[in-house]
Amino acid sequence: MRAVVTQPEIAVHYYVAGRPPFLNLSDVADEDVDGVLADLAAEHERGRNRRRFGRLYMELRAEAERRLRDAFTATGGRIERRAPHYFTLGESPWFRQLSPRMESIEILLSDLPADATSITWWDSFAAMAEGEDLGLPVAPAELCRRVHRLDDVAELVEAYGLPASQDEGPSDPMSAQHTFVEIQVWTDEPVLAHLR
Known about the structure:
single chain; alpha+beta; 15% strand
């Protein structure tokens, strides 16, 4: 008998305490990127975050977001932002442990605009196969380079279940791409109250 999987009803955005939510490196002006990356590297050295960022990451992230935009547009999705606001489907203990001072904002899935919300059944970086040449994880073939709509969540939970690994995962963030389902919101509408 197959176990019944309960679909989460919330999207969760994680951010480091003391910093505004919904910051995206893709929104940083070109002339400010080096300074922001230096600040993030210093935070990593001080143990404030466990993720590493650099110029290669920025290039790969830009390409992953381009693929996401193109794939979502092909489904009829509405794009109002160059880069989306990122969430996880339900809570992600793995994401929460990326900083000792992690905060979160929860939004009901029903409050997200279906026409401006996409989903990848892995982290979008892995789902878009952007790090494949570097030996980074890639989503399984049936999910690779696939972007889904918010209306598809119930069907996807039924077909694939939720990620099996909901623990803290490995210390290397790039090795745990399968520990959460990522939601991308391509408009500011549902998060306006949280933006500066």
